[in-house]
Structure formats: C-alpha cells, structure tokens
C-alpha cells in the first residue's frame, strides 16, 4: 500500500499523459481552459497539452499526498517534502513556460538531491544517514553501512544521469513510459539486489 501511495503522482502523470495523447483535441481545449491563466503568455500549444496536463495532475497528486498526511496528523517524511518541493518548482516552470524540459529534469534533480544528502551527511557531518534511519532494523558491521551508503550514492547519480539520456535523446512518449516503468523497475531491481547483499552480511557479528 505504501508503494502505491509513493507512486501515486507518477501513476497519475502517466495516465493523464496517455489520455491526453490519445485525445489531442480534447487535451488542447482542456489545457487551455484549465491552464491558460497560469502560463506566461496565456497560450497553450496543442502539442504541449498532454505533458502540461499530466504535469498539473502530478502537482495536484503530490499536494494531496502531503495534505492527506497533514490532515491525518501523520508525520510527513523529509523525502516526501523534498519530492513535493521539486515537482512544485519544476512542474510549475513547465506549465508557466509551457516547456517540457523542466519536468524531464525533475526525476534527475530529485535523485541527485537524494544522493547529495547522503554524500553531504557523510563528508560534512561525518554521519551515515542510512544507518541513522535503518540502524534499528538492520544489524551489520560499520564497514557494510559504509559500503551501503556509497552504493546508494552511486546509484542515485547513475539513474539521474540515465533519466537525462532517455529524456533528451528519445521521444517524450518513450520517456513517459520510462519514467514509470524504467525508473521504478531499476530502483526495484537495485533494492532487491541490495537486500540480498545485506542478507549475506547480516550473518556477521556487528562490532560492539
């Protein structure tokens, strides 16, 4: 259930884009009606309507994610706040300038920020933030925590770069598919691999 909640904006982005692409005339009219007042020149190019509508849907979905947790008086994780801030800034720029470049950069910026947070914690404050968050659930030696941190830093850097390769070298339709299935699939495979790797090292006795 949490996975579905986390993917909620991405799934709705995908669905809105596909619906808009399948009905370009309806998408163009809807985008002009809903977004015409929030773009810089008041114009919504028909070719950009699907991506602009999808971006607007993703922003609203992210707002609902945060709002639902706040309404229920649940803790809003820092990563959720960060994700909301990034989609608000880059999604907002996409709509304001009707330029899909910004929304295509959004996953990369988010992944790179995750990596920089981990890297900054280690290099500037001498703290392993992963261990701080997961240390109560996972018992491994300090060496493994250090390796785990750097594996995630490298992964975030690599997947962020890969998103740019796909976003700016292939059609937008393909990138939208990659954004949901490719990025999620790669993250899932990497996480499963990390889990298997950690399982081997959890047999070691942590340092006292």
Describe the structure.
By secondary structure, this protein is mostly helical. The chain folds into two domains: 1-98, no CATH class; 100-208, no CATH class. 78% of the residues lie in helices and 0% in strands. It has helices at residues 2-22, 24-35, 49-71, 78-96, 101-123, 129-134, 142-169, 172-201. Helix 4 runs antiparallel to helix 5 (101-123). The protein is elongated. It starts with a helix and ends in a 7-residue tail after the last helix. The model has no long low-confidence stretch (mean pLDDT 91).
Describe the structure concisely for a colleague:
With 208 residues, the protein is mainly α. The chain is built from eight helices and no strands. α3 (49-71) packs antiparallel against α4 (78-96).
Q: How much β-strand is present in the residues? A: under 5%
- Sum up the overall morphology in one term: elongated
Integer count of domains: 2
Percentage of residues in helical conformation: over 70%
**What is the radius of gyration?**
19 Å
User: Which class of secondary structure composition applies to the elements?
Assistant: mainly alpha
- Please mark out the parts with pLDDT under 50 across 5 or more consecutive residues, or reply none: none
Q: Largest sheet, if any?
A: none
Order of helical and strand elements: HHHHHHHH
Number of beta strands: 0
